[in-house]
């Protein structure tokens, strides 16, 4: 199937990305990353080293035949597969990402499975797709008996996390985030747009309008990158929030070290994002000020480290 | 770390004490999650003062999650939602305090293998976000206790996590015997755990007892009773200590004794600093006992293979 908004292509793509620290005391090497993400025997784990170490599992398909989410309770039905994959960044941050795309309409009667399986990651409506209602409903979260893409992402996450090589000796507590996204083609002649929201419990939503022809898989890649950087910010902000503001006696708080050891070097926006979508990141960054906030926090951590180092040199410790 | 709060009998003070421990640890800066598996009589929402927050729990609580009816169990941020006046302003330096309530209607139910997997996945996922997870189990060798026992066995998925059991009991003959039976009896945790693959000495080393609502004879009102009463009380105390030791609850296995606290006698609630220092309604000893116990949960000196 073609890109968003092309004649035979989808009119809507939706997905969810869950982001966590890999549950180990240390980042894992490339071989371990490969073992963790080898979810299928017939397809290899994709590894790349530039601009940072990045491993991607083969795609897994989940067959569905159900009601899509909707805001107005419009009854409709979609059949096909949702595709999911796991991503490991620098052997340290684990993401699971599930998405589907859907055309404006499909056959009026449900066809045999064979009809749907030829188009992996595609959900075909029986009849017409109430695209707008589905997009809004998707961001609001599934109701009972509606398609739950988040749970597909979560079970993939859980599957990777159950691996016996993970020691669960986590260096710091973090926030588990979920990012739900929808993408529709921008109206001809109009600019692309991105609408980002943050809710409680680590839930984020992103509503995108993108150029015609954008491949759903590229959108999923963009959203994984957004989710990663939002998670980094959330996690570092959370860790700094609980930090005592420089009590004289306190040694180097463990959490500062953990941030430096495990997270600070991971900021690399657009590292693995399709070129055509770089502008979306920039627009989002301009609205949210993410990069500036990250730089400020990074500087604050380094300042704290320097201050504490200076202090410990000039003050005889209680043990002398 | 997973802290499993169990008791043989009902009404031992298990839920109220466990909730207070969770509260104390989060005050200390730990990120704490409280899972209400007390499917028979959920009290956590009352203790944390969350009257309306749990109304939404039907169909989204822990029962529903474990049985696969919802993929996201309801989470309630206690600091944000509580109506307890002393808790509304979250103290600086405190950690997260989150309640995962049970469904309001539900009761006990037998678990299937798939439920154990869901429990394991949930705990693993919460491990990222929390330093301490408290699980309040229903009284007795409940289905919930079996589920947890299976999940924490070496091949159950959570076998390599630090898991610690607290067995709560009141300070009476019947309660002492029942608590010992729950831990070491024929149908107790250690035997049942061994059948599921636990190493008995390891499991036994992760079980400690908490005497809840135990009168402290050295402080008022008990220290001020008539001499005859005092002597009689001391004798009873002595007999109880001997009984406990004979049943395997030796001193080293008693993690704490929480004094009988009038405030808790009247109300299921958190004991706060204000209750003791500003309002003067709760005893300092109670607060201190809760705090000490909260610290001991992660102090290896109090835990070991005996
Ligand atoms: N230290 C204490 N002093 C006095 N009363 C207490 C103390 N601890 C708990 N209580 C009271 O004892 C009663 C039973 O406590 P709680 O509900 O915590 O017990 P439980 O073991 O969880 O019971 P259940 O089996 O019904 O869940 C409550 O009214 C509680 O407020
Ligand atoms: Mg209870």
Automatic annotation (TrEMBL), chain A:
InterPro entries: SCO2521-like (IPR049749). It comes from Streptomyces capoamus. This is Uncharacterized protein.
From TrEMBL, chain B:
GO terms for cellular component: cytoplasmic side of plasma membrane; cytosol. Coiled coil: none annotated. Keywords: ATP-binding, DNA-binding, Nucleotide-binding. GO terms for molecular function: ATP binding; ATP hydrolysis activity; DNA binding. The keyword Ion transport does not apply. One of its GO terms (biological process) is negative regulation of cell division. It comes from the Bacteria. The keyword Transport does not apply. SUPFAM superfamilies: P-loop containing nucleoside triphosphate hydrolases. This is DNA-binding protein.
């Amino acid at each position: 199937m073609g890109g968003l908004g092309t004649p035979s292509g989808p009119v809507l793509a939706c997905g969810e990305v869950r982001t966590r620290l890999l549950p180990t005391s240390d980042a894992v090497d490339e071989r371990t990353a490969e073992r963790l993400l080898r979810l299928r025997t017939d397809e290899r784990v994709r590894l790349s080293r530039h601009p940072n170490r990045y491993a991607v599992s083969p795609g897994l398909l989940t067959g569905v035949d159900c009601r899509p989410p909707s805001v107005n309770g419009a009854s409709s039905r979609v059949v096909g597969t949702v595709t999911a994959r796991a991503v490991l960044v620098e052997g340290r941050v684990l993401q699971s990402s599930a998405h589907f795309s859907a055309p404006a309409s499909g056959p009026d009667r449900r066809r045999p499975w064979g009809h749907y399986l030829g188009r992996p990651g595609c959900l075909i409506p029986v009849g017409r797709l109430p695209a707008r209602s589905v997009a809004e409903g998707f961001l609001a979260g599934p109701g009972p008996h509606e398609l739950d893409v988040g749970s597909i992402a979560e079970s993939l996450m859980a599957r990777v996390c159950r691996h016996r090589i993970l020691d669960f000796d986590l260096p710091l507590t973090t926030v588990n985030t979920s990012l739900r996204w929808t993408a529709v083609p921008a109206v001809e002649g109009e600019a692309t747009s991105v609408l980002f929201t943050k809710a409680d419990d680590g839930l984020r939503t992103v509503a995108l309008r993108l150029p015609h022809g954008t491949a759903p898989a590229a959108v999923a890649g963009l959203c994984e990158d957004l989710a990663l950087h939002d998670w980094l910010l959330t996690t570092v902000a959370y860790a700094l929030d609980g930090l005592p503001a420089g009590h004289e006696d306190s040694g180097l708080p463990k959490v500062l070290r953990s941030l430096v050891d495990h997270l600070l070097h991971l900021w690399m926006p657009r590292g693995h994002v399709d070129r055509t979508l770089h502008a979306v990141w920039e627009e989002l960054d301009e609205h949210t000020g993410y990069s500036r906030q990250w730089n400020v926090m990074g500087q604050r951590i380094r300042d704290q480290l320097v201050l504490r180092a200076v202090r410990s040199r000039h003050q005889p410790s209680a043990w002398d | 770390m997973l802290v499993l709060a169990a008791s043989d009998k009902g009404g031992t003070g298990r839920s109220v004490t466990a909730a207070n421990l969770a509260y104390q640890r989060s005050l200390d800066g730990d990120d704490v999650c409280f899972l209400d598996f007390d499917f028979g009589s959920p009290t956590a929402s009352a203790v944390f003062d969350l009257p309306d927050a749990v109304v939404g729990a039907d169909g989204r609580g822990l029962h529903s999650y474990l049985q696969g009816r919802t993929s996201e169990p309801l989470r309630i941020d206690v600091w944000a939602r509580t109506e307890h006046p002393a808790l509304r302003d979250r103290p600086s330096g405190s950690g997260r305090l989150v309640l995962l309530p049970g469904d309001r209607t539900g009761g006990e139910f037998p678990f299937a293998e798939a439920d154990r997997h869901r429990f394991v996945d949930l705990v693993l996922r919460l491990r990222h976000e929390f330093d301490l997870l408290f699980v309040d189990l229903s009284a007795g060798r409940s289905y919930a206790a079996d589920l947890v026992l299976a999940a924490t066995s070496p091949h159950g998925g959570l076998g390599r996590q630090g898991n610690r059991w607290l067995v709560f009991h009141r300070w009476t003959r019947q309660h002492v015997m029942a608590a010992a039976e729950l831990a070491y009896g024929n149908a107790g945790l250690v035997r049942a755990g061994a059948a599921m693959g636990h190493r008995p000495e390891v499991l036994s080393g992760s079980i400690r007892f908490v005497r809840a609502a135990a009168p402290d004879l050295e402080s008022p009102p008990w220290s001020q009773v008539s001499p005859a009463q005092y002597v009689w009380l001391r004798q009873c105390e002595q007999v109880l200590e001997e009984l406990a030791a004979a049943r395997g609850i030796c001193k080293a296995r008693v993690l704490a004794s929480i004094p009988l606290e009038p405030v808790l006698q009247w109300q299921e609630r958190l004991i706060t600093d204000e209750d003791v220092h500003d309002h003067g309604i709760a005893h300092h000893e109670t607060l201190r006992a809760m705090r000490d116990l909260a610290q001991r949960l992660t102090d290896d000196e109090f835990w070991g293979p005996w």
